[in-house]
Amino acid sequence: MAETLLNIEGLKTHFFTEAGIVKAVDGISFNLKKGESLGLVGESGSGKTVTALSVLRIVPKPGKITDGKIEFNDENLLKKTEKEMQKIRGSKIAIIFQDPSSSLNPVYTVGTQLRDVIMAHQTVSKTEARKKTIEILEVVGLPDAETRMREYPHQFSGGMKQRVAIARALACEPTLLFADEPTTNLDVTIQAQVLNLLNDLKKKLGMSLVMITHDMGIIAEMTTRIVVLYAGRVCEIAETHDLFERPRHPYTEALLAAVPRLDMRKTLRVIPGNIPNLIEPPSGCRFHPRCNYAKQTCKEDIPVLEEIESGHFVACHEWQNITLKGERSH
Amino acid sequence: MFRYIVRRLLYMIPVFLGISIISFFVMYAAGDPLNIIRLGRPNITQETIDALKVYYGLDKPIPIQYLTWLTNLLQFNFGKSLYGGRPVNFLIGSWVWETVKLQLISILLAFAISIPIGINSAKKQYSKQDIAVTSISLFGVSMPTFWLGLILIIIFSFQLGWLPSAGAYGAPYLWWDNPVLDEIAHLILPVTVLVYVMLAQNIRLIRANMLEILRSDYILAARASGLSERKVVYKYALRNAIGPVITYLGISLGAIIAGAPMTEYVFNWPGLGRRYVDAAMRLDFPLVMGINMVITVMTLIATLIIDICYVYIDPRIRLR
Ligand SMILES: Nc1ncnc2c1ncn2[C@@H]1O[C@H](COP(=O)(O)OP(=O)(O)O)[C@@H](O)[C@H]1O
Ligand code: SF4
Ligand SMILES: [Mg+2]
Questions:
Q1: If exposure means fewest CB atoms within 10 Å of the residue's CB, which of A23, A114, B64, B318 is most exposed?
Q2: Rounded to a whole number, what is the distance in Å from the CA of A86 to chain B's nearest CA?
Q3: With contacts defined as CB-CB under 8 Å, which chain B residues touch A154?
């Protein structure tokens, strides 16, 4: 079995707002092997982005990591100083954000923004940094990189902007990349191109990937293992094919049922009910107000994540008593 | 860029003409300067008045007077002051310099001070420092200029005797008899007033923009790339935050230039603003018109410079 690259245990990240404490991430644990592609799925608001920002330790105010452990290469990132974290960000761990239009600085050229990242981590001259910038832009498939690096983000199309953002994330060849819904804001045709690019680069650079999305279709193609999040907690962890065929958590079943299937001409079904208020989340199992299988204990006791088969973890009181439908049976 | 500047300069011609026509006719509607002369010297004869009328061309119809004035202006002849008869362009020259000096120093200083304060306030939102800065700047926005000027004069000139209370030069007893230091000593109080007034507005703007920008995705992305906090704030955020302040400066330029007379008046500053008030009160037409036109040109050129700065700062702005 491959070595563990990232190990998160009991991570809690809360936002101390005027309205109350938003428990966006509330005791999440999972790990990631070297070279692995892991999916982080859940509806919008389930804490996927906050988890990624926590690993990089760039959770915006009024958010704070209040508990837990984030081990990267066996070192606890939560014990590192800000200076040490700066060296890790962008060089060892990088992230691509959802919206390339807002994640690139509008007033600096694409070349400047890439060069700044390279020069923050490597002792190279400006000319060398420039050369590297052109190289990486060519790697991500930006045509005519030498001219286009002198242009500003607004002069690029959405897909090209996301390629630039990928180039920035990969400029220093990180070992771990978070891709936070990297295609949600792109046209469908461009989506496939960008996902292919990510897959190619992952293989080429031998890095590990955490693919964040709420799109079960993308996750099936891109990952080998999946962590399902709901309202700041982990529901289920399993290998991708296993999770799709034999989900053991009612929320996973609901997510799979909501996947639009072309062959069946089904329209997107949403999961009934809303993601709960994270200031005063539901007691016990946070999914209980929306769960078809909920019992009294579900309202009272918090289910713990247990390994029910080798590599398959579930946090549900009822998993032994229920049979859930996988993707194929819909 | 070059073509844009040429186009903007050409565009100034109709604006300039329009403003000159409006001010010329408004001035004539304001009153007859000879009446004021008559008030000053009750036993002046009608013959003298008529002679003065002819001498200054005030006997001709107003449109003819305007055309004469304009033709002369094109030859850089602004006419003669109705009081003392000295050529207007000769008078204005030194006043323009004094006003530009005062304004430029104040604007630059206001920026140099407000940028770090605004940034720090935004970075430490709701800290004690931030609350102090926001309340003081609120105070600044609402404080009348002349009142602040008077308070400063009372404290620093009359009571402490550290700084001159009036003029731009010539208080030899102060500051070791050095002409440069003397000039600086005279600048301190009026610059303080002008900076203070601008400062409040600038800090509020920079703070507000900074707060918004520090929450933006591209700042999060810059942090995620491992850039140092200094680079994130002073390179990636600042350039975005400064744009609106420049825009504000552009919009308020008219007010700044028009507001200067008050400060110049309080400090008896030998600049355009103060003389403008004097000339207008005496209906000294050639002088008022001359100053009007100089202010117009100054405003137009300053606006152009600001627009060019803005394009340089924000590449999304295209020159049209
Ligand atoms: N800056 C913030 N202030 C307050 N709450 C926040 C902030 N950022 C995120 N949250 C809360 O954290 C929760 C999880 O957000 P997020 O991780 O962005 O969800 P996801 O990426 O899964 O859609 C949301 O419910 C949101 O309300
Ligand atoms: S613990 Fe209960 S409420 Fe939660 S998912 Fe399982 S059955 Fe549903
Ligand atoms: Mg998100």
A1: B318
A2: 4
A3: 315-316
Residues B62-89: pLDDT tens digits?
Answer: 888 889 889 988 888 888 887 877 888 8
pLDDT in tens, B107-151: 889 889 988 998 888 888 778 888 888 787 777 667 777 788 888
Report how far residue B21's alpha carbon sits from residue B38's, in angstroms, rounded to the nearest whole number.
27
Of A287, A295, A296, the one to substitute when testing ligand 2's pocket (max ligand atoms within 8 A of C-beta) is: A287
Mean pLDDT of B99-105: 87
Q: Taking CB atoms and an 8 Å limit, are B226 and A165 in contact across chains?
A: no
Q: Is A163 helix (H, G, I), strand (E, B) or coil?
A: helix
- Tell me what pLDDT residue B312 has: 81
Query: What pLDDT digit, counting tens, does each position of B236-255 carry?
Result: 999 998 888 887 787 777 66
Q: How many angstroms separate the CA of residue A241 from the nearest CA in chain B?
A: 32
Nearest CB to B226: which of A90, A103, A104? A90
DSSP string, chain B: -HHHHHHHHHHHHHHHHHHHHHHHHHHHHH--HHHHHHHH-TT--HHHHHHHHHHTTTTS-HHHHHHHHHHHHHTT---B-TTT--BHHHHHHHHHHHHHHHHHHHHHHHHHHHHHHHHHHHHTTTSHHHHHHHHHHHHHHHS-HHHHHHHHIIIIIIIS--S-SS-SS--TTTGGG-HHHHHHHHHHHHHHHHHHHHHHHHHHHHHHHHHHHHTSHHHHHHHHTT--HHHIIIIIIHHHHHHHHHHHHHHHHHHHHHHHHHHHHHTT--SHHHHHHHHHHTT-HHHHHHHHHHHHHHHHHHHHHHHHHHHHH-TTPPP-
Report chain A residues whose CB lies below 8 A from the CB of B240.
105-107
Classify B95-313 by CATH class: mainly alpha
Percent of chain A with pLDDT over 90: 82
| Chain A to chain B Cβ contacts (< 8 Å) | 81
To which H or E segment does residue A112 belong?
Answer: helix A110-121
Which of A41, A43, A9 is closest to A28 using CA atoms? A9
pTM, two decimals, is: 0.84
Q: A47 CB under 6 A from ligand 1?
A: yes
| A319 Cβ under 8 Å from any chain B Cβ | no
- ipTM entry: 0.92
Query: For a pLDDT cut of 70, what percent of chain B falls above it?
Result: 94
> What digits encode the pLDDT tens for the residues A209-255?
999 998 888 899 899 999 999 999 999 999 999 999 999 999 999 99
Which ligand 2 atom sits closest to the C-alpha of A251? 5
Q: Residue with the nearest Cα to atom 6 of ligand 1?
A: A15
Confidence class of residue A265 from pLDDT cuts 50, 70 and 90? very low
Min Cα distance A49 → chain B (Å) is: 12
Q: Give residue limits of the domains in chain B.
A: 2-74, 95-313
